Amino acid sequence: MLNLKFTPSLVATEAGVDQWANLVRSYFKLDGHHVQFNVVGAETLRAARANPAEHRDLIVRVAGYSDYFCDLSPELQEEIIERTEHQGF
């Protein structure tokens, strides 16, 4: 299983979506079997941490499972924020 995290700006343009599609196609051509993406910015996660009532439906990939961001411990929330943003493919 491959878990990838991208900022929304990476896939906000047609070119970004094309690059994302090429990435996925390449992964499967290399015999990949399962891929899962988080497409969320650190600013959204920080807003969820500051105002959890407004972000109850925010689900993130943790480590082998998905969970509601606001239900995670503060330490795990911070770890997810720190590893969230990748600025390029």
Descriptive overview:
The protein has 3 helices and 4 strands; from the N terminus they run E-H-E-H-E-E-H. With 89 residues, it is α+β, with helices and mostly antiparallel strands. The protein has one domain. The strands form 2 sheets. The protein has a two-stranded parallel ribbon with strand order 1-2. Strands 3-4 form a two-stranded antiparallel ribbon. Helix 2 packs antiparallel against helix 3 (74-82).
What is the typical, i.e. mean, pLDDT? 90
The geometry reads as globular
Q: What is the strand tally?
A: 4
Strand order in the largest sheet? 1-2
**What count of structural domains?**
1
Radius of gyration: 14 Å
**Order of SSEs:** EHEHEEH
Biggest sheet descriptor: 2 strands, parallel
Specify the structural class.
Answer: alpha+beta
State the helical fraction. 25-40%
- Uncertain segments are none
Number of helices: 3
| Residue fraction in strands | 15-25%
Distance from first to last alpha carbon: 18 Å
In short:
By secondary structure, the protein is of the alpha+beta class. It has helices at residues 14-29, 42-50, 74-82, and strands at residues 2-6, 35-39, 59-61, 66-68. The protein has one domain (2-82).
In terms of topology, how is this protein built?
Elements: E1 2-6, H1 14-29, E2 35-39, H2 42-50, E3 59-61, E4 66-68, H3 74-82
Parallel strand pairs: 1-2
Antiparallel strand pairs: 3-4
Highlighted features:
two-stranded parallel sheet; alpha+beta; 89 residues; single chain; globular; 3 helices; two-stranded antiparallel ribbon
